[in-house]
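User: I want to check something. If I give you two sequences, will you return the structure for each one separately, not as a complex?

Assistant: Yes, each is folded on its own. Here is the first sequence with its structure:
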Amino acid sequence: MRRSMLDKAFGSKYFSVLFNIFFFVVPLGATTCASMGGLSKGRAKTVWVSASIILALVGAVLAAIEKRHSKTQSRIAGNMHDANAAIIDSLEFIAERISQLLECWDMHSRVTVYAAVKRGGEVVLCPLARRSYNPDLSKEGRTFCRADEGMLSSLWRGEGRGMAKAVFPVDRDEREHWYVSQYHMDEDTVRGLTMYPISMFGVRLEYNREPVGALLFECDDQTRPARFDADFMDGYESNSAVRELVNVLQSEIYAVRTIIPGLIHHETYHSMPEVPVGMLPEKKS
């Protein structure tokens, strides 16, 4: 929906400052003109009184515009909030359904939908939707993951046909050490993880042959260290219902790529200038 010229003008921070100045200057000018009119005589008095009336009318018009604009902005903000919530709900529903079809919907597993975003010249992957049968595993964690760390790095570069799996040590301490030494994650990041998976499986999401994100499955079941084996990968590729849902997921992420920053509910992220991209990062020599 296109914004009117008035909305665009009020959206400018410079116009907002100018508008605030007018709200201070116009009433002051009207009062001054009225005072001068009281002190003047003849034609000068008429001029000052007329000027005060004009400025008072301008002030009234500005006040009416500001009130209308505030209501419009509040309504737009409310609509955007509802739209964002609907998008997230849709992504979560699709991710949950994919997990159920792959029989990966249990207390030890979760699935996360990541979208590609460019932040300060660097491609990062932001979790837009996360679902698990276990509420504790659905908790939000990091606001974004670098595209050059962990399994997401392999997926983003398109290794293994855009599919990858990994198995980690069952022992928690060994697992954390593996994250740091093999996946190049710093210790603070590892300590802040909301899940310490023993096995993972991920696929790169693409639209028109351009990467737009990733779909990551994780499991921390110690009795099933090879949760995502060859059979699981074959099931992912051969299940037509899963493939159809993945296509919908890819299309939806691509369709909302321009508003992805607004979908991420994190205060520190709202102030960052993010631009969603559909390109591969430059490979290091």
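And separately, the second sequence with its own structure:
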Amino acid sequence: MIAFLCLLSLAIGLYLYKTVAGFGGGFSGGLAEPEGEKRAFVTSPWAVPAALAAGWVFKGLWREALGFPFDVMCHELGHSLTAWLGGRWSIPVIAGIAMTDSAPSLFLSILVAGAIAWLSWKAVKARSPLALFCCALLITGFVHLQFIVPGKQFEEYLLLGGHAGEFVFPALLIAAFYHRGPAGLRWDWLRYPVMVASAFSLVGAWQFWAKAVADPVTGIYGVSVAARSVAGSDVARLIGGYAWTAQLAVDRALLLGRAAWLFVALVYLRFALDRKPGAGAAS
């Protein structure tokens, strides 16, 4: 059933992309780019820093209200991407769950390997450092989860994948702000709201774990990680099933967070160094 839902979602996604691309990436023909004309890709050097600063100021409003759906999807996509790389069918749901098949699928493993190979070929053709970096991450994850991680330990990575997604996806989307997207997506204007949401989400994910440094046991959820009310959470399951401690969970999450912040800083530094005086275009 999960496999069917995944394939159906993929088919619907491809259909919607083709439909939107037919309108020039917008929601009406009026948003289409003129034939033969390529819009200037203008990027303000203050856009990302301003969005990150706003994320710190409005952190409560975003995490607890406006940005909850975005944060949830980053989390659930983290679970699902881990499952896909490990050859398990999975579909993320906005309700806060990733429906995942526990049994590995050879067909899905071959499908994922083919998709990664195709994306890598496209990245090499495009000579895109960001796309090549993403493909390197996918290849590393695929090899590790398929051939190195024992089957009985896979759930440990699956549980960690959710919180990893809260750092990885926002960081990559912030980096994508400085690059042209697929021709049909009209990324030239869509990238701004996506970047702002990603900046707010990244700040929120960092603060969620940073507040638990002083007291990992109660600082993560506001109650003890052993409390019945959080028994089904990823951290509680890691502690109960894989001998993790609350301190280890906080340390691993903050390590992922530091890597995400470093990645964003390096991307911004590259943009700042490549930006010619008087030019507003990013390559």
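Because they were folded independently, the notes below concern the second chain alone. The chain has eleven helices and two strands. The CA atoms of residues 101 and 144 lie 19 Å apart.
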